[in-house]
Amino acid sequence: MSDFLADRSELSAADVLWAVGRGDPIATELLTTASHRAGEALARLVSFVNPSMVIVGGGLPAAGDVFLAGVREKIYSQSLPLTTRTLRVERSELGSHAGLVGAAYAAADDLFSRRYLPQWIYRGSPAGMRLLALPS
Q1: What is the pLDDT of residue 49?
Q2: Phi and psi dihedrals of 18, rounded to 5?
Q3: How confident is the model over 78-93, as a mean pLDDT?
Q4: Where does residue 124 fall: left (phi above 0), alpha (psi -120 to 50 degrees), or beta otherwise?
Q5: What contacts 128, CB < 8 A, 6 or more positions away?
Q6: Model confidence at 58: pLDDT above 90
Q7: What DSSP assignment string belongs to 41-99?
Q8: Domain segments of the chain: what residues?
Q9: Quick check: 71 pLDDT over 70?
Q10: Which of 1-5, 59-63, 88-92 reaches the highest mean pLDDT?
Q11: Which member of 7, 11, 33, 111 lies 3.0 to 4.6 Å from 15 by CB, making a disulfide possible if both were Cys?
Q12: Which CATH number fits domain 3-93: 3.50.50.60, 3.30.1360.40, 3.10.580.10, 3.30.420.40?
């Protein structure tokens, strides 16, 4: 691995991507291993949930085709054949903000659900309602 990375006690995804961009074979192997592990985990979910699309986000997908190819390889080889027939695996356009945006959408979906909307709609806002903050 490059001297820059060898001197570090901890590596971030950005460090690995930097080294991959410079052709470092160890960093490329780390990225490939990470993509295969992510793909293996997603393959189990795909077989269970049967989605029409998987969107991969976060820092590592910024590596481009190397990461996405490894994820796709594991999903398509380890998922049930019926679940991958029309499955699309794409990189998020949101980059490292994908998790944050996804969490915001999940919160909004819950807030406007049939379960919670009637509890706050006539007040005009859910702000300050402790009941909504408690786990169900």
Answers
A1: 93
A2: -60, -45
A3: 90
A4: left
A5: none
A6: no
A7: HHHHHHHHH--SEEEE-SSGGGGTHHHHHHHHHHHHHHS-HHHHSS-EEEE-TTGGGHH
A8: 3-93, 97-124
A9: yes
A10: 88-92
A11: 11
A12: 3.30.420.40
